[in-house]
Amino acid sequence: MEPKPEQSPHHAYPDHWEADVVLRDGGTARIRPITTDDAERLVSFYEQVSDESKYYRFFAPYPRLSDRDVHRFTHHDYVDRVGLAVTIGGEFIGTVRYDRIDDRGRPASAPADEAEVAFLVQDAHQGRGVASALLEHIAAVARERGIRRFAAEVLPANNKMIKVFRDAGYTQRRSFEDGSVHLTLDLEPTEESLAVQRGREQRAEARSVQRLLAPGSVAVIGAGRTPGGVGRTVLRNLLAAGYTGHAYAVNRAFDEGLATLDGVPAHRSLGEIDEQVDLAVIAVPAHQVPEAVADCGEHGVQGLVVVSAGYAERGADGRELQRELVRQARSYGMRIIGPNAFGIINTAENVRLNASLAPESPARGRIGLFTQSGAIGIALLSGLHRRGAGLSSFISAGNRADVSGNDFLQYSFEDPDTDVALLYLESLGNPRKFTRLARRTAAVKPVVVVKGARHSGTNPPGHAVPVSRIPDATVSALMRQAGVIRVDTVTEMVDAGILLAGQPLPSGPRVAILGNSESLGLLTYDACLAEGLRPRPPIDLTTAASPQDFRDALAEALADATCDAVIVTAIPWVGEDGEAETGDGQVLAAALHTAVAGGSAKPVAVVHVEIGGLAEALAAASSTAAPRQRPTTARTALPEASTDRTASTDREGATGRTTATGRTTDTDRTTASAPAAPHPPAAPAAPEATPPAPEDRPRPGRIPAYPAAERAVRALAEAVKYAQWRRQAAVPGKVPELLDETIDEAGAAALIEAHLAAAPDPRGRQLGHDEARELLGRYGIDVRPTLPAPDPDAAVAAAARLGYPVALKTTAPHLRHRADLGGVRLDLTDEDALRRAYGDLTDLLGKPAELLPVVQAMAPRGVDTVVRASIDAAAGAVLSFGLAGAPSELLGDTAHRLVPVTDRDAAELIRSIRAAPVLFGWRGAAPVDTAALEELLLRLSRLVDDHPEVVSVALEPVVVAPQGLTALGAAVRLAPPPARNDLGPRRLPSY
């Protein structure tokens, strides 16, 4: 039992310091403050520590703790004296303590900002990362209490402790004094310390999932004696898959004389099993689960799959049962998949684990699959099976009370058997962490996500996680920024997954189309254009084409340096009697495999109509050879693949078909159309000299087949966009150094502090126009001033001060930024024009006191845009950009990026809206100064990143002219920053 903390006479018990952590070996432990009720635990803990470890801690033989020691180590004020313990099963396995000291090393109180720190870890748990986790948490506690440095005395022979300090990543100093090593650590987080922390987090969480997926022994708790039932079904599926470890059936209702069930040992409890059980699948009613979990914890089980239902999906009472389930399991160092889980699968040859309700284990493959829904899991398993795609691992997490999609990403990142990670998610417990992990994983392998419950604004029943209010369009944009392939349906997920798992990534958007159906080729061509690809005119092999003709045409297309991918279209052959023949799909598949094996590394997809056996034959891997390097010179190109750029461009704009001989037929369908909108110049690309291109990854040789052109093209388009992201991510963007010279960070901080102090409201305050201008000006963001005009004379005086021409605007909330309602008068060149406009405005819309009119100097003509930044407590700061006006708002044409943004992010942000051509000279207009716009985005990103108290900024409108830009309006809101859960020490979420 955990102690009931006593109230300290100096400071309340800090329950927010309590945390569950994953240790290096994948087990969990709890970190909490030590209290006065821990005396017996401390003594028991100390008795289990070796004499050597005691000597390293106290620099002398110290066989036992005195009563005075026990009192000192269990009584803390949680300010100047703090002790933390790591517990498993309620017992201590490690402790850390700090005592605040002055510059002479004597006990002190604030404002002294240094503390002496000391650790002690049980020998049986050394090497599990206990001390490293304790250092992260005690450092966070110390910073909270105003301590900036730790001092430690370590014996030179205590290499393990010296390594803990050395590897932490903090700035440190070391000296040798009086026979010991004196270490001083600055506790301000550094890039290195954050990287170390996240690296440890990744390895620990990946290991925790690996332990679940590759157990040496499995016990199914709740397997019944009669056929049927959840537990018995899981046991039979486990055995049918050929599980390589030891399996056991456990049920307290078994007769004492029952020795085996389905050929495996049967037991009434885990205590009857001679060996340690690594994984337990719990399939008993919810009210019996606590007893089963306790039995698992007391007998050293490492992880649980809880398929039992009756938890958070049932309402508030079930949600509390779920929380208690997680607390109980973690107290024993176990992680949970579930509850209400469908199960887990690992197809590795040395494991062959199917601890799920899926009756048939999928074939071994290179796709990892995570779902938060059993029903969707069944659909995905079935869809992948029908398409001949295998899995490396599968987790259906049910209510995902513990193990989540983030843990699966940690595992997939380093799993050598997984090339593609597919995730069906209904909730994001920690969006900040998800985007961070997804970006890192996507840099080495594709991550494909379907997000359910996109528009409900609530989490599905059973998902006890915070609800994010971020619009789905913003979530999608942030996923794209992280390299995630976001698709809308599970069908699209399967389509993309089999292409990415079986084919190399394309090096560009140019697509060759060939096949024996003119109509199917044209459908494919149109689909390519709709998805933003650059298709070549389809090559019609005619209905008389043989498999050898397909092979030769595909080989030529793969050798053609002017295309990056190939789509093959095929329909059944027509016999001499005029009836369609299904043909031999295996023969055609063999011909296509032959062409692919001899060609350069380009993705190939097949669109077919009712050709029996083709999809299955194509799904069979023909090669597991190492990746081939792209040839430096192309083979002889097809006749129509002219290297003349003009000719190539003309053909890409045509919709006619091309025969196998390269001649354009009389049925060309090229039509005249209006001039296309200018294409925005590409954002800064990564240099050509980058690490190995993404297309150079291993290619299993499986060719994906699709029943519709649109599905194949959509999957290929996602691969093209992902490959482009990979190339750019290889050389990250940066923030130009010139910004540092024009930014007054300290001055902005002082202004923010003064504004918040003047109105101490936890909800924050909205700055006035002049206050906002002053704050933004500290970051080089100039906002054009406005002067109030409560009457015509004041308006004239304001115009004289600002200089003509001027604009007269209303600032009433219901009219703000609504020029369409007549609340703005522009280009007023003199006093008479201003007075007339003032009279017209008040006659039309109301009294000056209602309209709150202002006068502002005219800005150069340009394109009106809107730039915003806001902070979501779950996702973090988001920068948004779009054109001003109702059309953009109605169409939702706004782009988003997570802060901080780089130069490349800023360039992509303004180019990713659909109306971007307006900025680059649409219909002959002069292009605007996008460089100035990118700089504005970078400055605003830097402001909200440096000062989390700036929770909302809106610059509207920002008029971007051919030279320069002008921000005409600004709204800034300040508030105490929301707590961040991604910068503190490692901890498992607790919902």
Quick gist of this model?
This protein has 29 helices and 42 strands. The chain has 991 residues and is an alpha/beta fold.
What structural class do the secondary elements suggest? alpha/beta
Distance between the termini: 21 Å
Task: Strand order, main sheet: write it out.
Answer: 1-2-3-4-5-6-8-7
Secondary structure tally, helices: 29
Radius of gyration: 33 Å
The quaternary state of the protein chains shown equals: single chain
Report the uncertain regions.
Answer: 1-9, 622-677, 685-700
- Beta-strand proportion: 15-25%
Binned, the helix content reads 25-40%
Biggest sheet architecture: 8 strands, mixed
Shape: flat
Mean pLDDT: 87
Number of strands: 42
How would you portray this structure in words?
It is a single chain. With about 1000 residues, the protein is an alpha/beta fold. The protein is about 35% helix and about 20% strand. It has 29 helices and 42 strands. The protein has an eight-stranded mixed β-sheet, sandwiched between helices. Strand 20 (about 420-425), helix 12 and strand 21 form a beta-alpha-beta unit. The chain starts with 18 loop residues before the first strand and ends in a 17-residue tail after the last strand. Mean pLDDT is about 85; it is low at about 1-10, about 620-675 and about 685-700.
